[in-house]
Predict the structure.
Amino acid sequence: MIRLVSKHVTLMAVCLVAAIALSETLLLPHQVDTQVEARLTEIRDDLQLLSVVEAAQDRALLAQYAEVLNLADPDHVFFSTDASMEAPASEVLKLYPSESSSALAASIKLPSLRATITADLRKHNLGYLAALFVGLLLAGLRRSPSEQPKEEVESRSIAQADVPMMVQRSDDALASCHELAQFGCWEWCAHSGMFWCSPSLAAVMRNTLAERVDQETFFQSLYPGDRTMVLKAAQAMLHEGSEGEIDFRVSTASGECRHIHLVSRVLRDDEQRVVKVVGTCQDITERKAVEARLRKLSSAIVQSGSSIMIIDILGAIEYVNPKYSEVTGFALEEVEGKQPDLLSRKWLNSERYELLWNTIMSGNNWRGELQNRNKDGSLFWSLASISPVYSEYDELTHFVIVCEDVTELKDAHARMERLALYDELTGLPNRRLFFKELAELFDPTTETSTAAVMLLDLDFFKAINDTQGHGTGDQLLVEVAERLVSCIGEGDIAARLGGDEFAILIRNAHNVNHIETVAEAILDAIAKPYYINSYDIQISTSVGLAWLPKDADTPESLLKHADLAMYQAKEKGRNQYRFFNENLHRQLQTYVQFSREMPRALDAGEFILQYQPQLDLTSSRVVSVEALLRWEHPNKGLVSPDAFISVAEETGFIVSLGRWVLEEACLTIREMAALGFDDVRVAINLSSRQFRDPQLLSMIQQTIAEFEINPANLELEITESLLMQDVEVAIETLQALQHLGVTVAIDDFGIGYSSFNYLKTLPVDVLKIDREFIKDIPDHQDDMEITAAIISMAHRLSMRVVAEGIETKAQHQFLAEQSCDVGQGFLFSQPLNFPELLSFLCRELGEE
């Protein structure tokens, strides 16, 4: 049945010719009037198919085709079984002109079948009606009614009564199929140019196509850009017999562009001449949209900057994109059907392998770093994203793996991590990593034995760094680091915390002897000479130790305790180690207390200045006074600066406190000048923190201007060690201070490590000899010789000399004999409050 339907169009034309021939020879040999005969001849000439149906087997085929005539529309074709309907032969076929010259109505009355057929030719083409007519005609020729049994006639009558319903159903079914498939049929006669199409083609082409249209009408529906291409293809079909398939576009009234797929077949006669072209058109707009999306996706995959691989659920590779081949060196042919290395047990441990495959086989995405292999065998790291692919039946069929080569990123991350956790100069762990390792020992879930922390600070490293250059200092730090590592055991950590400060973590501290042995080994190793840049250099270190968990319950407090012990080692003479103890713990408590109380004390006016006179050793006249800071604590009484200055320095409070001292000193200078002591200088100390303060110069200048004092009466004392921390910066700052007009003095000279070469470059007015060299005069000859040398050197550098700590007349006499300029100490006066100082000055003035 389907085969016959597919030949529908061709058989219609064939049946028409057969109808004409049979009507002339069998049924109506002499009874067709002139008008009918002329019309049939016209139709036959148009079709030019005179010899198509001549053989008996072809007539049998037409009879068989009549069985499928139920495709007819019952609205336009009907049957009547009324036996009384008989008419002369001249009335069998009648043609009635209608309102339209192209529309005809035809009816045929067949006495042998006792049936009448009426059809509207405007609804069906002539070939179709001819097939209908001839099919019934041939069926009726097989046997006359008188020869047929009564039962057969009655049965055929009932069957004939069902034909309209069968025709209706089949016609509707075909139309529905065409509509669902967006499908239409057409045929084009090569000789006459007549074009026929099924009703569904109009919907496909988005145009109303008439029954008989020429190619111009057909092509009007085409998209302008495709019109020439389709026309050329059509001409090739008609004239060259070309068959094939083409895609083109049609434009709708709304401006929408639809895609059409055309399939054509060529029918030829016995001489292989093209008779007609038949074919179909189908709307494939949705398919084109899908194909366009697929092309985009395909292009995205092919052109992607990421490596893309598609594997089946067994892990076999089915596709790799060009980027994958570029990165790994493997072509698709070399890896197709194989399992990728990055998903194999070879590169994944069992736990990770099971987790990965369980995740993706469950239909979930997986993302992570995987190791992969290049064709040359080298390994690299990929950041892989694995996604599942499902079939239209919602079955997991494939996985898409998108990979990014992150080898350089991981290398960079490793370098960044090393920079973040390791010291760039020495290669040792830095403060961050050391603190991390130390914090793990305080984790309550971690079982640890007794551990110890050592903090080390190199003694006088700053002087070496400044005198020998930073390159030498850096090389010294590198060699110190190597020696530290050689002194510790496996599992212990040596770290550089910054500058010349190092730390050591001993994880398994067996006992005190064990730790003392390590500490002594470190002191000995560091103290050995270094040969750097043709220089023999010697240096020592001070070490502070604290126990874990005995000395602290947090990493921060443990390091703080070790730090206190280290500073105690420095105070005891350096090049030694000290353990944290309860005394240091009390110092720490004091530190915490003072750091909290000092800001409040400054606001409450608890800080005061006391003044110790400095006398000219020749005239015994007071030439200056040193302002000494004291804290009148409400509970502790008068607190010495040795107890709180270091706390103020570390907390930064020294800046605020130093500003107050400067203002008080300027106020004292102004009040003394008002009382007639305008030639007496007031000396104050600058701490290291103050000296590095970028606001120091502006603060001093503003204060001098505010109190309207003679800047020469203000003397600033700076320790020798402070100046040696950064000589170049110190020189610039001192020159700026002298430019303001103030007097600059070096305090505690002799206990530091400055050289004469640097001393002569410093813009300094006064040099103060530390009391350590004075207290043993005249008992120690060495101290006397050093003191005499300092005085002589200072005078050659045009500096005035002040000797501190003079307590005996013998000391006074010796210093006077060495031409020391000024003396200060209990021999002359203890520190005095401001009223007491005024009384002291007045008594001295009265004596004069």
Observations:
- Residues 1-145, 208-213 have pLDDT under 50 and may be disordered.
- Residues 205 and 250 are 7 Å apart (CA to CA).
